[in-house]
Automatic annotation (TrEMBL):
Organism: Panicum miliaceum (Proso millet)
Cofactors required: L-ascorbate
GO terms of molecular function: gibberellin 2-beta-dioxygenase activity; metal ion binding
Root EC class: oxidoreductase
Domain of life assignment: Eukaryota
Record protein name field: gibberellin 2beta-dioxygenase
Similarity field: Belongs to the iron/ascorbate-dependent oxidoreductase family. GA2OX subfamily.
Biological process annotations from GO: gibberellin metabolic process
Biased composition (Polar residues): 1-10
Length: 370
């Protein structure tokens, strides 16, 4: 069932969260109230927050524990050994630099394509002693988490009343799926400048917050990973017991505030992605989020980004388009959206570039959406 988290949020957002009647929604995936109730709860959480904490999710702890051990061993290597798996293009090992447009964070990471062949290729530079060992660990984890992602997407299809509840999950089970796995390592704040000695790793960052006018202002802390939405269909994040993740949510006055997500290593945190917002004609919300790197202990997080094949045409499903809710986004392929994403800064609201105007809507009828 959906219940509000009772864990305190950061001081600057505690009052706002309280006024909303709770913080982060929690969904019990074991469906104590039955599958129908569960599907409605998942759909409501994704529509109202674009984000929820999934508990009793059925993913066994073994694959996650083995992946954490393997990636922790990699991040413990000397900088020159880790750099063999980079530079990110965008796949591979990266440090501080995020993307190609000047974004930076206080982290190091591995970004991998989720296909077994791609994992095997990259494993040769990640685990030089036994590449197949690393490949097996990653593939086991991806298989388990992809199954959970499909279950959540099918529940969303049911909760939204789609003619084919598997409309979303079929996109990520295609053999040409472009899904990714990202492992982020945020060193303790006291050692954060010891990652390496490259000039690009000496950049200081600031927290970007939203003031009452919706504008950005500065506050004194370090950005681990800057404000952004996830571009894919859905993402499933699992992290250790170190706080840092924040989501941008409206309070009771409609003002956007950053809400601290209490750490829970036993749970998965589910984000609606840009593509799912487009597929549902804006009924589900792609939430903006960030990570603050201020902890005295290292933070390790793993994110599975579920994406369709590059050639997939993304357009609002016919059931989501009505006279009162005309089509919001023009059709596009995932390849087109991905190319646009890489041309922009991390914080850009990418979907805005694909919106249709009043004049365009007359040309986007339900038949074209099919």
């Amino acid at each position: 069932m959906v219940v509000p988290s009772t864990t305190p949020v950061r001081q600057e957002t505690a009052a706002a969260a309280a006024s909303r009647g709770g913080g982060i929604p929690t969904v019990d995936m074991s469906a104590p109230g039955g599958r129908g109730a569960l599907s409605r709860q998942v759909a409501r959480a994704c529509a109202e927050h674009g984000f929820f904490r999934a508990v009793s999710h059925g993913v066994p702890p073994g694959p996650a524990a083995r992946l954490d051990a393997a990636t922790a061993a990699f991040f413990a290597l000397a900088p020159h050994d880790k750099q063999r798996a980079g530079p990110p293009s965008p796949l591979g090992y990266g440090c501080r630099s995020i993307g190609f447009n000047g974004d930076a964070g206080e982290l190091e990471y591995l970004l991998l394509h989720a296909s077994p062949a791609a994992v095997a290729h990259r494993a040769r530079s990640i685990d030089t002693d036994d590449p197949s060992r690393f490949s097996t660990v990653v593939n086991d984890y991806v298989g388990a988490v992809r199954q959970l992602a499909c279950e959540i997407l099918d529940l969303l299809g049911e909760g939204l009343g789609l003619k084919d509840p598997r409309s979303f999950s079929k996109l990520i089970t295609d053999t040409d799926s472009d899904s990714l796995l990202r492992i982020n390592h945020y060193p303790p704040a006291c050692t954060i400048h010891k990652l390496d000695h490259d000039d690009q790793c000496k950049m200081k960052s600031i927290v970007r917050t939203k003031n009452g006018n919706g504008l950005n202002s500065s506050a004194g802390a370090r950005i681990g990973f800057g404000e952004h939405s996830d571009p894919q269909i859905i993402s499933l994040l699992r992290a250790n017991d170190v706080n840092g993740l924040q989501v941008l949510l409206p309070n009771s006055d409609g003002k956007e505030v950053w809400v601290q997500v209490p750490a829970d290593p036993s749970a998965f945190f589910v984000n609606v992605g840009d593509l799912l917002q487009a597929l549902t004609n804006g009924k589900l919300v792609s939430v903006r989020h960030r990570v603050i790197a201020s902890a005295c202990r290292p933070r390790l997080s793993t994110i599975y980004f579920a994406a369709p094949p590059l050639h997939t045409r993304i357009s609002a499903l016919p059931e989501t388009i009505t006279a009162d809710s005309p089509c919001q986004y023009r059709p596009f392929t995932w390849a087109e959206y991905k190319k646009t994403m890489y041309s922009l800064r991390l914080s850009h609201s990418r979907l805005d570039l694909f919106q249709v105007g009043d004049d365009d809507n007359s040309n986007v009828d339900k038949g074209e959406q099919e």
